[in-house]
Each structure stands twice: as C-alpha cells, then as structure tokens.
Amino acid sequence: MPITQFLESNARLWPNDAALAEINPSLARSASDWREFSLVETAAEPGYRKELTWREFDERANQVANLLASAGIKRGDKVALLLMNCLEWLPIYFGILKAGALAVPMNFRYTSSEIEYCLKLADCRALVFGPEFIERVGALSEQSRPELMWFEGAGSVAFARDMESEADAMPVSSPGIPLTDGDDAAIYFSSGTTGFPKAILHDHGALAFSCEVERAHHGQTRDDVFLCIPPLYHTGAKMHWFGSLISGGRAVLLRGAKPEWILKAASDERASIVWLLAPWAQDIMDAIERGDIRLEDYDLSAWRLMHIGAQPVPPSLIKRWRALFPNHEYDTNYGLSESTGPGAVHLGIGNLRKIGAIGVPGEGWRAKVVSENGGEAAIDEVGELIVSGRGVMKEYYKDPAATAAALKDGWLYTGDMARRDEDGFIWLVDRKKDVIITGGENLYPVQIEDFLRGMAKIKDVAVIGLPDRRLGEIAAAIIEAKPGQTLTESEVESFCQALPRYKRPRRIIFDSVPRNLTGKIEKPKLRERYRAARLVETETTG
C-alpha cells in the first residue's frame, strides 16, 4: 500500500502517542538541561526538545499537502526539500507525498551550483528550504529558481513564501488524493565517479517495502525507541526510520553527534535502537577509553541494538564495541539509493562469527555475485554484486542509457565487487566505481581532481581513497608538480580552502600519476601502492 497509509493508520490507532522528538543540544542552557518545552518557540524561549504525536504528525502533513495543492502543485510534480534534520522534515516530506507530488530530498552540503543542477535535473516545480540555506538558495539565478519556493524557519525571506504561517492556515483534514503502490513517490540523488548526480526514481510500493524490510531485520515494535542521528535526506536514515513508521514506535532526531550527546540522548530517551556511522562509534569508544565519558553516568539498559552501515565497517571496530557493550545485538546493512537504501543485504542479528561480511540477501531481496560473462560466480570468486527486489528503483529519471546499464532482467547491477563464501555470506572486495565513502558521505574524485588542476604548479593529480580507522576512508591526492616547480603540502592545503571542508583531501602525496595508453589514470596501481602502507599506519596508531 502507499506509504502514507502507515502514517494515517498510526494517527488513528495511537493519536496521542509520541511519534517524533527533536533534540538540539546546542540550545541547551547546560549539559544537564534536557527539558521539554512548547512546540511554539519564542525568542525568549528557543527550546531544546520538541515532540509530535502521531495525530499532530499526520495533521501537519495534511496541512502541507493542502497548501501545496492550493498553490497549484499537482500529481506528479516534484517538490525539493532542503532542510537540516528537524521536527518539520518528515511532516513536510509526507505532505508532499499526500499531495500526489514527488519528494526530492537534497544533500545539505550541496553548493548553489549543485542545488541548481539537481533542481533542473529533477524538474522541480517547488523548493522548501531552511535557514541554513538562505544564502545558497538566494544565489540561484532567476532562471534556475523553481516556480514556487517556501522558507521553513523563524523569520522571513524576501524571495520565498513562509511555509509555517501558510500551512497553519490550511485544513488538518486529508486532501483526499488517491494514491497507489505504482505511483511515483520520490527522487533521490546518487552519483558515480564523474560526480554528476543521477536522479533515482522510486514509487510508493518501494518505500512501503522498505518499511517491511526494516521491521523484519530489526524486529521493531511500538515499544522500541529509535535514535536517529544521520541526515534525513539520505535514504539510509529515512529508510531505517521507516521501521518506526510501520511499527508505530517513537523516533528521536538528535541534532549533533558528540559522544556525550549520543549517550545522553540514548539514556534519557530510553533508546532501544541506535544507528551509528563508523566515525561516531569510534569517537564514543575513544572518549570512553580516554576517561572523558563514564558509562556509569548513563542508563543504557534499554539499548538493545546497535547497527551500522553507509561505509565499509572494519571488524576491529565491532570487536572493540562488543567488548564495551557486550549485551548489544549488532547488524550491518548494505544498500544503495537505487535499492531504497539499507537492507538489500544485511549481516543479520546473531551472525557475529561473520563480522566483516555484509551478510545475506535481506527480507524480500535476492542477491548474486556474477562474473564478467554474466553467470553466477563460484564460491570465493570475485564478481559484481547484483540485487533484485521490490525496492529496486524504477529508473534513473530522464537517463535511459544509465537505466539500461544498471537494470538488466530485473536485477540491479551495483558496481560493487564481492565474493560469496561457502555459507552464502557476501563479502565486499572493492568498488568498480572510484567513489570514496568517508564518514558515510560520498566524495567524487573527479570533482576534487578538476579543482586541484586549477593550481598553476600542478601538472597532474589523482584522488583515491585510503583506509582510515575513524572515517572508513579518507581522500588522498597524489599530485605531480610541473617540471621545475616546487610544491608544498601547505600550499595545496591553502588552495583547497576554497573547497567545502568535507571535500578537502586529508592526505597530500607528491608522486607521478600513472596513466594507461588511453590516457586514463591507473588508480588500481595507486591504491595498491599506498593502501597497504596506510592500513599498517592506521592499525599502528589505532
């Protein structure tokens, strides 16, 4: 059924139960100030913790849907969503769906040019954005601005309508727009090695399927409390939250990832399920082992499951975690935005003997490792991982060639190289694509390389991923200076200040850049040359 029906059902069954809470520690008066406050914020009382019941959630989504309809948004229109995690995020998302439109979540790290590119790619008629993006949205050219723009936040913006006040004036009743499983629901953005995003189209049935997958994997019930920290624009965060949606459980959005904030939120909110990215797990363990955090200061007795994903997870991390939290169940999740995020493959609770594997096909999924000729690879033979299930995308929007390359006979070709062991567990070996996953975020080497080539002293450059204990991978720039030129790390680092912080190379290496006869950089050679040394360095410092 359409995913909106889960929300409507929860509002009928448990109207007064808490559905969502938002905690913003940066607004706290003190470290121990975890007070609840009115949903109506004022300048004198900015607040620290907000909460919505299922009825309030559904009614707000209805108001957003009615607002969009009154402004002329029709079935099939695309509405972009550019917000930091906040209590308003999900009601607006579901309001877009209830209007019959497609929700188009956007990465909050996008620059103005990337926002412009994605708005055009997805044919967005409208954009809802928050206070953190006023400058970036304001920098959009008149020609690239969507027809309709709403600002969600305190105050007003001259070039956009006010979402809060306009939605407040709308009816709380459903707009009554009929939806089916096959109706288009959302567009998510992904990207390959070129760095140019592809628009991934999913329908309502795929989103509803991901709810069922999440509940099946983690056994979620109404009694579970899910602590959500990663950004909601990402399929990983949202599809994990879908387990709370289908079960009617409460979710807590924590705005910040400091170790003490995570543990205090888990303690005070009685969180039972926490999804962590590898860097956050490393930070928590480091803080405990340094003595900065004392576990006895927190009541974590409700916490039953720690699961992790979005990047390769070193087995040493999980072994170390289990030593500190021996009662935690553990699961790792593999997926792509093309497969409605996590769960296409997962380790499965109780399979600690297989730490390091991504696991087995998820609930309702099939997975195979295939060789170059398309046949199924033998046990322990490396091939490409392909997956099939209801959660596979409909297409790359407006890109039939890319769609045909990725979807073949009902299978999604992931571009990831893997092997399957004698027990059927899948182990990732490498990625066909050169995307670097650092701290759960994708970096696209070509973008960084093109930027660095603007430096006058650089002859050639290649950006690769190197292992990192905390972030999974870091971006390393192998730089070849022009003949007769001298170049220092500090010069390169200074030049890179113009890049967003997360795109700046964390390691600078001066060396020749090997290219093959067709002019392509031989990145496998570079990875082989530097990864082993980096791995030894990482394990030694760890």
Q: How many domain regions?
A: 3
Poorly predicted ranges (pLDDT <50, ≥5 residues)? 34-45
Q: By helix and strand content, what is the structural category?
A: alpha/beta
Just name the CATH architecture of the largest domain. 3-Layer(aba) Sandwich
SS summary, helix count: 15
Strand order, main sheet: write it out.
2-1-11-10-12-13-14-15-16
**Strand element count:** 27
CATH fold group of the largest domain? Rossmann fold
Polypeptide structure, described:
The protein is an alpha/beta fold and 542 residues long. The protein folds into 3 domains: 253 residues, 3-Layer(aba) Sandwich (Rossmann fold); 124 residues, Luciferase, Domain 3 (Luciferase, domain 3), CATH 2.30.38; 104 residues, 2-Layer Sandwich (GMP Synthetase, Chain A, domain 3). It contains 15 helices and 27 strands. It has a 9-stranded mixed beta sheet, sandwiched between helices. A 5-stranded parallel beta sheet has the order 4-3-5-6-7, with helices on both faces. Strands 17, 18, 20, 21 and 22 form a 5-stranded antiparallel beta sheet that branches. Strand 26, helix 14 and strand 27 form a beta-alpha-beta unit. The chain is globular, with a radius of gyration of 23 Å. About 2% of the residues have low confidence.
Tell me the layout of helices and strands:
Elements: H1 4-13, E1 18-23, E2 49-53, H2 54-70, E3 78-82, H3 89-98, E4 102-105, H4 112-121, E5 124-129, H5 134-138, E6 148-151, E7 161-162, H6 163-168, E8 184-191, E9 197-203, H7 204-218, E10 225-228, H8 235-247, E11 250-254, H9 259-268, E12 273-276, H10 278-290, E13 305-309, H11 315-324, E14 329-336, E15 341-346, E16 360-361, E17 366-370, E18 383-388, E19 395-396, H12 400-406, E20 407-408, E21 411-420, E22 426-431, E23 436-438, E24 441-443, H13 445-452, E25 458-468, E26 472-481, H14 489-495, E27 507-510, H15 523-541
Parallel strand pairs: 1-11, 3-4, 3-5, 5-6, 6-7, 10-11, 10-12, 12-13, 13-14, 26-27
Antiparallel strand pairs: 1-2, 8-9, 9-19, 14-15, 15-16, 17-18, 18-21, 20-21, 21-22, 23-24, 25-26
